Amino acid sequence: MKKVKNKKRLILLFFYLHYATSMLSYEKSFFKDKSGTFFGTINGILELERNNDKSNLILDFQGSKSTLKIVEDKEKMYDTHYKYYTGLTTSGNTKIKYNSYANANEFVVVLNGINYAISKMDGAHREKIKGIEISLLQDKTNEYMIVSFIIDVELNNIQQVLSEYYKKNPGNNDPEMYKLFIKENKQSIKVKKGSVLIFAIKK
What we know:
alpha+beta, 11-stranded antiparallel sheet
């Protein structure tokens, strides 16, 4: 575990030492007013705690594929664009997603077919997820987005469970059946403090 934590620190230290002078605000992001799909890589480590058995799982990202899809909000209600980042683990077996709009954001881990998520992307899109810090850096060819977990952050599959419930029980309004289904199928994981991901998206 100590080696894993040291590796996380080295990744962050490398990027801050090399690109600290290019720290960006969202207003100065290369992708601020662009639309389309852009490609790059992802590096880093996510340490997950599975709440059902309290065991830990390490997901590593070593130059794996990543994409940034930017979709224009034609109504421009709270922002001009939606941004959808995706990345794969080194093995390619697990996908992560980071989405943002205005001040709101969403983080998803797709693990063994289960979508574990935490989201603030609703309502007025004013709130950010507590415990996730975002930094933007750039050089001549890439823009880097660093996703840092400064506290443990819990994700759950409640949205996936609700979707499955309504598909299996269309028109069923029995509250007891609804509660039982959620209780039997809801799962959660924690992304541990110190986890970090670095998206490198080509300009």
